[in-house]
């Protein structure tokens, strides 16, 4: 099974693509889609849509796993990221890929085994589980890979998290 994990955002959208078979992971690709503030907000959404569409066409994942938003005190940022997340979901639905959502607590539980794990613990486990020489940067990329791993570890319960 090929899984794409997404850490939603507007300035940086982390993505990680893994193959999960027989309880083994293989990294296919990972990276970030970035948009600069010099572009208008709608242009930034289009950049995300276009680049994510290219990634989905290239790798043809079986499932699309995305982290739910954790709202902070900055309402404008939360709204902007929410709109970007909607575009990211639209991209998957347009490619008819099953979508699964996970809370940050579920991602930590699925990767580290402890829902209150620190960010660094999750990053280290991503590195170990995927046999990487270093923690992927920026953090959004490591987070996206963690979402993909979480989905792999949650597949027996996948109907609980499916939104499409």
Descriptive key words:
164 residues, alpha/beta, Nucleotidyltransferase, domain 5, 5-stranded mixed sheet, 5 helices, 23% strand
Task: Give a topology summary.
Layout: E1 2-7, E2 12-21, E3 24-34, H1 41-59, E4 63-67, H2 75-94, E5 98-102, H3 104-112, H4 119-129, H5 139-154
Parallel strand pairs: 1-4, 4-5
Antiparallel strand pairs: 1-2, 2-3
Helix pairs in contact: 1-2, 3-5, 4-5
Number of helices: 5
Helical percentage = 40-55%
Strand content: 15-25%
Q: In angstroms, what separates the terminal alpha carbons?
A: 18 Å
Main β-sheet, spatial strand arrangement: 3-2-1-4-5
Q: What's the architecture in CATH terms? A: 2-Layer Sandwich
Average pLDDT works out at 92
Architecture overview:
- With 164 residues, the chain is an alpha/beta fold.
- The chain has a single domain (2-160), classed as Ribonuclease H-like superfamily/Ribonuclease H (Nucleotidyltransferase, domain 5).
- 46% of the residues lie in helices and 23% in strands.
- The chain is built from 5 helices and 5 strands.
- Strands 3-2-1-4-5 form a 5-stranded mixed β-sheet.
- Helix 3 (104-112) crosses helix 5 (139-154) and helix 4 (119-129) crosses helix 5.
- The radius of gyration is 15 Å and the shape is globular.
- The relative contact order is 0.22.
Task: Offer a quick outline of the entry.
Helices cover 46% and strands 23% of the residues. It is α/β, with parallel strands linked by helices and 164 residues long. Strands 3-2-1-4-5 form a 5-stranded mixed beta sheet.
